[in-house]
Design goal:
15 helices; mainly alpha
């Protein structure tokens, strides 16, 4: 317990987390601090490229393995199954409509790549190695949750726009964040350590500084969302946003133990299973479930679960995984 508290305190006092807290506090205090949209987008593109490229290099160094295939399979299964658990909890804990519950469930079955990057940074700060192909697992966990949510809607009497199937698939498979992440992963895999050496000064040294500024912007976005949707997220809905990450992380740990991931890999799978999408899934839900209220799902994912994972969740997942797996 003392180790967990120490780790949590260290994480809370890291520049990355404090930047997020600064942005959140500024937004809640109604400061006019803001980032130009182009700069925020540029930082996002940089982070996706850097994490994808480094993951590809790691796979090129270690080579293909059965473990990689099993990790991808477990990630896809988790992404497909978590929405069913989330949907059942929402129907019990809240008064959300079937459509809104399915939309929220899709967000929680999918993943937040920013949370994944933050988890990776915490592991690196602690000197804990992890499997480089976890980037590929993150990419694979984006789409299955959306399909599960659509299945839930079709079976529970909600309304989904099934006439835009082609548009929906484009939103899912050609989402910019996924294209860049997978593309950078492929480039890193193809070029290997030699390619990394050529651009190492670009993707390694500036990474944490850019991440700090990006999370400052994320704090601003989360704070504004909380202010604007204060009446939408309370009671059972708020409780869901705090409990669901813990359940997702538990499932992630079980999956990691099943296939024998390292401590670092297990923590990242927990982080992925505990996170909630606020980029790819909202775009897909606008197409598939236009009747769903985006204020609920976005505020839960970005304003409740994201801060929880960033400040308390990641240290907790690391402490639990260390206690069970050793390390």
């Amino acid at each position: 317990m003392q180790d967990m508290l120490t780790l949590a305190a260290d994480n809370l006092l890291s520049p990355i987390i404090l930047c997020f807290v600064l942005g959140l506090s500024a937004a809640l205090a109604r400061s006019d601090l803001t980032f130009p949209e182009a700069i925020a987008k540029g930082m996002s593109l940089y982070l996706l490229f850097a994490i994808g490229f480094k993951g590809g290099v790691a796979v090129a160094t270690s080579g293909m393995s059965l473990q990689l295939g099993l990790s991808l399979l477990v990630g896809v299964v988790l992404s497909a199954l978590i929405p069913f658990l989330a949907f059942a909890m929402l129907r019990v804990m809240t008064r959300l409509s079937v459509t809104d519950a399915a939309a929220v469930a899709a967000h929680y079955g999918s993943i937040s790549i920013v949370t994944f990057v933050a988890g990776s940074s915490v592991l690196e700060a602690q000197g804990i190695t992890f499997e480089g192909y976890m980037v590929a697992v993150a990419a694979a966990m984006e789409a299955p949750a959306i399909l599960s949510a659509l299945w839930l809607i079709s079976r529970t009497g909600g309304s989904a726009d099934t006439d835009q199937g082609g548009h929906l698939w484009r939103e899912i498979m050609l989402n910019g964040s996924i294209v860049l992440l997978v593309g950078a992963f492929a480039i890193g895999w193809i070029t290997g350590p030699d390619g990394k050496a050529e651009i190492d000064a670009f993707i390694t040294a500036p990474f944490k500084g850019v991440l700090c500024l990006f999370l400052l912007d994320m704090g601003l976005v989360a704070g504004r969302g909380l202010r604007q949707a204060r009446g939408e997220v309370r009671g059972g809905v708020l409780a869901f946003g705090l409990v669901m990450p813990l359940l997702g992380a538990s499932l992630g740990l079980m999956g990691a133990m099943l296939i024998g991931l390292s401590l670092g890999g297990a923590v990242l799978l927990m982080v992925l299973a505990a996170s909630a999408s606020y980029i790819a899934v909202p775009a897909a839900m606008r197409v598939a479930l236009p009747a769903a209220n985006p204020a609920v799902s976005l505020t839960l994912a970005l304003g409740v679960t994201f801060p929880f994972n960033l400040t308390l969740g990641i240290p907790l997942y690391l402490a639990v995984a260390s206690a069970i797996l050793g390390g």
